[in-house]
Amino acid sequence: MNTQAGFILKVVFLSAILSFLIKYGGKFIPITSTTLDALILVLLPTLILSLILGWRWQQQIHTKK
Predict the structure, then answer these.
(1) Are 37 and 31 contacting, i.e. CB atoms less than 8 angstroms apart?
(2) Are 27 and 35 in contact (CB under 8 A)?
(3) Do 40 and 25 reside in the same domain of the chain?
(4) Could you tell me the residue range of the domain that residue 43 belongs to?
(5) Averaged pLDDT, 9-24
(6) Do residues 3 and 11 make contact, with C-beta atoms less than 8 angstroms apart?
(7) Beta strands of the chain (E only): which ranges?
């Protein structure tokens, strides 16, 4: 399943599993409802993705030289 459709099916499947875990398993994780926790949960994925993309961009620059 190395096609684009296979990749999309994998993403949909993993998203469904993650959604299920959040819906039914999230109530067992005690997270306080503070503004700081909300900011961390909202900004952390963006920060992680920007770090990964920046790292890959730096690798591409160094391999072109």
Answers:
(1) yes
(2) no
(3) no
(4) 31-65
(5) 92
(6) no
(7) none
What stretch of H or E contains 9?
Answer: helix 4-25
pLDDT (average), residues 35-60: 92
Same-domain pairing of 38 and 59: yes
How much is the pLDDT for 1?
A: 54
**Same domain for 38 and 64:** yes
What's the pTM? Answer: 0.52
Mean pLDDT of 26-53: 89
**Terminal Cα distance for the chain, rounded:** 35
The mean pLDDT of 37-62, rounded to a whole number, is 91
For residue 31, what are the CA distances in angstroms to 15, 34, 36, 37, 43? 22, 9, 11, 8, 16
Q: Are 1 and 9 in contact (CB under 8 A)?
A: yes
